[in-house]
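Course exercise 7: structure representation. Students receive a sequence record and must write out the corresponding structure in token form. The form below is the worked example handed out in class, using lipopolysaccharide heptosyltransferase II (355 residues). Read each field label carefully; the graders check that inputs and outputs are placed in the correct fields and that the protein name is recorded exactly as given.

STUDENT ID: A-19
EXERCISE PROTEIN: lipopolysaccharide heptosyltransferase II
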Amino acid sequence: MNLDSAHQAIEDPGDTRPILIVPYMWIGDFVRGHTVVRVLKQRWPNRPVDLLVTSLCAPLVDYMPGVRAGIVWDLPRSRLALARQWGLAEQLRARGYGTALVLPRTWKSAIAPALAGIPERVGFVGEARFGLINQWRWGEKALPRFIDKNAALALPDGAPLPAEWPVPQLHVPPEESARWRQANGLGTGPAVALAPGSVGASKRWTYYPEAARLLAERGLDVWVVGGPGEKALAAEIVAAGGPRVRDLTGTDLRNGILAMAAASVAISNDSGLMHIAAAIGTPTMGIFGPTSPYHWAPLNGLAATVQTSTAVPCQPCHRPVCTMNDHRCMRDIPASDVVAIAGRVLAEAGAGVAR
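STUDENT ANSWER:
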């Protein structure tokens, strides 16, 4: 039973104290964190919800229903940066939060909410955060999936988990994606967005250049979407695919969001862009090798989950780099299969495609 259809108890509709969520800051995890927002809004419809966010993820907040504001504050990963923590705490204190949900289990993530004096600081036991978290939750390791661990913090302590969580949502106005296409000279025809990057080399499918060529031969426009780390791979894909293939990689995540919103179908590794496309509602094909779709596929569902039909005994290994079986979990997924599936997805979506 989805929480949208459940009779979720509303707690004190007169409570208007703002709530802060300290989420995980990887792009895909940040998108999945919108489920936490939706659970909180069902529980307290009149309490504003803000998100702490990095500069990288900040554009996502603009498209998240139910989020009042993003607090953009970049903290270095390699050191405590106490002065930066104090600066953040001053901003949080000025906003008068009544509750903070600290999703990561790290000591560092709980410092600023504690320094800001937020009265209720909710989080799982971890890293000796005594005094930083004052509403402890136990049993995180017993929760089966990443989303269960996060969204459980938005429920009352001890409440049973629902069979289904509200899915993440990103609402991109059609006129905004249309303006983006026009500004980039991308026309109005059906297009396939390819997201060849990921955190961890083992999650990257091998045959994007060949897939781009086959898609272009079918008369489709192909967009390569990703960050600056995918520039070299994008050049290889463009060279293989020809003039119908465009390199749209860059440093601004908003560009990737709008590309995924404008595309007819998205083909992606297990990555943040996969979660973005699915949350927007673009038909999304997720290619999985070393990771488990059960644990890491979007809650929104996928138009197709693509995995090898070869029996690979080490799959899933969840390792960032393949150390055995010559990366067969990805190498044994041929480009022709992926393109054939994309054709079916496009047909089901009503987008024209040459045969």
